[in-house]
Amino acid sequence: MTRNRMLNLSERWFRLLRRLYPPDFRDEMGDAVVEAYMDRACDALKTGGRICLIALWGSALVDSLRNGAAERARPAALWRRAGNWGRDVEMVRRRLSRSPVFAGTTIGTLTIGLGMFAVVYTAVQKVLIDPMPYKDPGDLYYVWRDYGPITDLQRGSLAGTDILEMQKTNVVIQDAAGLQPLLGGVFALREGADPMEIAVTRTSPNLFDLLGVAPALGRSFAPDEIGQGRDQVMVLTSHFWNRLGADPGIVGKEVRLQGRPFTVIGVLPPDFTFVRDEAAAPPQRVDAYIPLEVNLADTNPKEGRYAGLIRARRGASPGAVAAAVNAVGRVIDARDFNGRGLKLYPAGLKADVISRIRPALVALGAAGLVLVVMLMVNLASVLLARGHNASMKWPFHARSARTRPPLCARLYLRAACSASPAARSARLARSGGRARSSLLSHSTCRAAKRLRSTGELAPA
Q1: CA-CA distance, 347 to 338, in Å (whole number)?
Q2: Inter-residue contact 57 to 452 (CB < 8 Å)
Q3: How many whole angstroms separate alpha carbon 133 and alpha carbon 376?
Q4: I want to staple 424 with a disulfide (CB 3.0 to 4.6 A). Which of 61, 192, 419, 437 is the partner?
Q5: DSSP type of residue 266
């Protein structure tokens, strides 16, 4: 069998052994492995003949079985399992591990910047984007008085009779409730206990039914629990109930408000949040609710003391709600103000509550976005600057490698000796060519200089 025939058989055998390695290893280093083994096959056939070549075949089989299994179980380069993304992540990890101070500064800057943006976005989303925790919150409206030519007041509170009149309108307005703040709410858990000031709202008994919220503990107000001569009852918010110790047994117990006894009949669910809006004051949080002290029918129709809250029927457009409320206003104006021009107008519950803080929240959200953009731009600039500095250093290292071929050769050999047998042969074959080229270039340059100095070679 001729030498070429033996080498062709060797190449086929080595390519067959290449299948023992995982596909990603074959793609990256398969050809180099075959080339390295072919160099060894040529040397073996030249020095020892066919016997040495067959021994090399057996050695290659053993190496491939051992290294192929090891490469499948634990690859030398983990990024190959994840493709190009894995390679990029591995390169980033190595670069950051070489510069721990830069890595810590970068991670800290990203953490602070993104943390601040998360806080801003959470506040904006909670107030501006998320729906309010009520049943069909888009059907809820506050109603205000516009006194027009009567007096210079375009946002005034309603009278109790105004709320009763809206409760009679069943075509568009489904229900209406009145709310009134209790000034100076001094609360004590029991007689003789330390008092605390809380925000208390007087309300119509139908408020929680209008909002579509049921208490988590106990019950809400009964329709007849309004006016004087009735039992004094109270419903607590979940936030205030937690401040008191979150005792489920508080339902049915007697507490003190303004020195008078009140019975706790219910606790609202944790996700219930409600702020009472005012005609001339910012919205106020509420800690506890008690019924109105007087019947709405017994109030003075010309004195506005209540914030009116209505629920429109499902599917009613804002224009239809405004028309229905305006019609009620005309009835009230004719009946109580002799047609002097009083008007009623609705405002969406959420839009009315956040109308004063909406510009600030929008500006805060925009500032958060600008902060993130500036953070990313600055970080990209720093990375580009570091990359530019690294690229400026590379020609220097390249020139050093060209002018010091012995050192270059030693580095190549050291790298080749640190790999597995198959990979070592492949890298040695590939790097040896580069080292030989470098050495040859160096020797050629020295010979050219020597000839030019003696005058045997004219300069170009």
Answers
A1: 26
A2: no
A3: 36
A4: 419
A5: E
The whole-angstrom separation of Cα 258 and Cα 413 is 91
The DSSP-derived string for 102-162 is: HHHHHHHHHHHHHHHHHHHHHHHIIIIISPPSSSSGGGEEEEEEE-TTSSS-SSBPBPHHH
pTM (global) more than 0.90: no
Residues 202, 288: Cα–Cα separation, whole Å: 9
Q: Which two tokens stand for residue 95?
A: 């670069």
CA atoms within 13 Å, Cβ hemisphere of 242: 6
Contacting residues for 7 by C-beta, under 8 A, at least 6 apart: 38, 41, 42, 45
**Per-residue 3-state assignment (H helix, E strand, C coil) for 77-97:** CHHHHHHHHHHHHHHHHHHHH
Which conformational region is residue 244 in: left (phi greater than 0), alpha (psi within -120 to 50 degrees), or beta? alpha
250-293 pLDDT, tens digit each: 999 999 998 899 999 999 999 888 877 777 677 778 999 999 98
What's the Cα-to-Cα distance from 81 to each of 74, 87, 421, rounded to whole Å? Answer: 10, 9, 21
Sorted by where each begins, the domain ranges of the chain are 137-356
49-73 and 421-454 are packed helices; what angle lies between their axes, rounded to 10 degrees?
A: 110
Contacts (Cβ under 8 Å, ≥6 apart) of 103: 96, 97
Helix then strand then coil, in percent of the chain rounded to 5, is 55, 15, 25
What CA–CA distance (Å, rounded) separates 258 from 266? Answer: 19
More confident residue, 320 or 115: 320
Do residues 290 and 262 make contact, with C-beta atoms less than 8 angstroms apart? yes
Range scoring the smallest mean pLDDT among 187-191, 204-208, 363-367: 363-367
Q: For residue 352, which of 181, 180, 141, 204 has the smallest C-alpha distance?
A: 141
Q: Is 163 exposed, middle or buried (0-12, 13-18, 19+ CB in 10 A)?
A: buried
Pairwise CA distance, residues 84 & 316, whole Å: 56
